[in-house]
Amino acid sequence: GNSVTQMEGPVTLSEEAFLTINCTYTATGYPSLFWYVQYPGEGLQLLLKATKADDKGSNKGFEATYRKETTSFHLEKGSVQVSDSAVYFCAPTRGPNAGNNRKLIWGLGTSLAVNP
Amino acid sequence: KAGVTQTPRYLIKTRGQQVTLSCSPISGHRSVSWYQQTPGQGLQFLFEYFSETQRNKGNFPGRFSGRQFSNSRSEMNVSTLELGDSALYLCASSFQGAADTQYFGPGTRLTVL
Known about the structure:
The complex is a heterodimer.
Chain A: E1 3-6, E2 11-14, E3 19-21, E4 23-26, E5 33-38, E6 44-50, E7 56-59, E8 62-65, E9 75-77, E10 86-94, E11 103-104, E12 110-115
Chain B: E1 5-7, E2 10-13, E3 19-24, E4 31-38, E5 42-50, E6 53-57, E7 64-68, E8 74-78, E9 87-94, E10 103-104, E11 108-112
Parallel strand pairs in B: 2-11
Antiparallel strand pairs in B: 1-3, 3-8, 4-5, 4-9, 5-6, 7-8, 9-10, 9-11
């Protein structure tokens, strides 16, 4: 069945370091791919998404490219800030490309701590 | 637009009790999904309601149930609470469904003693 694997955390970086959080998935068809972020004490919010192969999603300096050949959607940021400290979730869609049974499959999340 | 609201934010119950959580989606959104978040299991999908009908269901026991009203507001009920039900329960609304961009509420923190 469809599944997603994220790199385990916690990830601890110094401010201005380069960030990569790996995400790979197994899926049939052509899922849409999402990254969500959860700041401390808050619910999740969409960070970026990509809906077809080779699409690049970007937001707040974060980027991720939909790589169908490697079934990956790695999250990157060139220079992290303390305010990026949060938990990051990778989520591909699951189910047929259309219809009511589609839903997101969630990774376990990767905790990121950025030190000043 | 106002965001997704959930009430109550915190709840403490004892084993065997039941609990009802409420979620008000973003205006115009007809889909409401519920998730359970725990440190060990991550985010797990409970169910999705769309236009008052349950459209999707996760792998949770029948003690977990929900409903959606005509104004799209949704409630989730857990009966016969167990210690393992302690978690953050998140509600998310979307325009098209559980595979569309989800807009999350802040969650209800349930503690079962």
